[in-house]
Design goal:
The structure is a homodimer. Chain A is an alpha+beta fold. Chain A has five helices and three strands; from the N terminus they run H-H-E-H-H-E-E-H. Helix content of chain A is 61%, strand content 14%. The termini of chain A are far apart. The structure holds a DNA duplex.
Amino acid sequence: MNYQQAKIRAEILKALAHPVRVLIVETLSKGNRCVCELNKLADIDQSNISRHLAVLKKAGIVTDCRDGMKVFYHLRTPCILNALKCAVEVMKVEDKIRNYF
Amino acid sequence: MNYQQAKIRAEILKALAHPVRVLIVETLSKGNRCVCELNKLADIDQSNISRHLAVLKKAGIVTDCRDGMKVFYHLRTPCILNALKCAVEVMKVEDKIRNYF
DNA sequence: TGACCTTATGCGGTTATACGCATATTGTTC
DNA sequence: GAACAATATGCGTATAACCGCATAAGGTCA
């Protein structure tokens, strides 16, 4: 893998590397959601959610689809969930160590 | 998943979300490496590599082991490679779209 | 001990992220 | 067209990430 390839991978991972965006992706894994629904995930401004969605969209993780006044988002690459699972694995190992010492 | 859990996951993903750190993890997947070897991966200062390794270590992705003057790093949670594979999948979908339009 | 090798850290500057507020944009309904 | 609802964007600010340089810290060997 060269630097350029690593850079693209890093950009995709970075797009997911924010607590709100993790919540969004996890929620979208259960089905499509409009912005107004996703807005309830955290106590933040609506404009902020909109920006997080733009980040995920730019990275190719989600796509959007307008239906009347609402815009629905859905996961374009469900395999992104594996990245989250992996994060859980890392957490588990850390817990073992925490409990050990 | 609550916000706190999402935050921890995001931190782990963020630790991986940098081109140099992606290169490091990919290299470590082939076996343990000392800092001086990893330093050849990119044309950056040695102190910079050391800092990137500290980030990966803090996230629980790698551990280190001193052997004489050298410090060897190795993957603590190889499943982190799945996160990278996933990034590749996202890239593939993007390529299809790029080629289509 | 002193010269040398390998790795880590303090520091300052630059750049990128994240956020809320206000407001624009898009679409609906009356 | 006017009022309203849902979403996106411009802007200023606060915070965090990244980098190189210099140097410290840990280890080796003559």
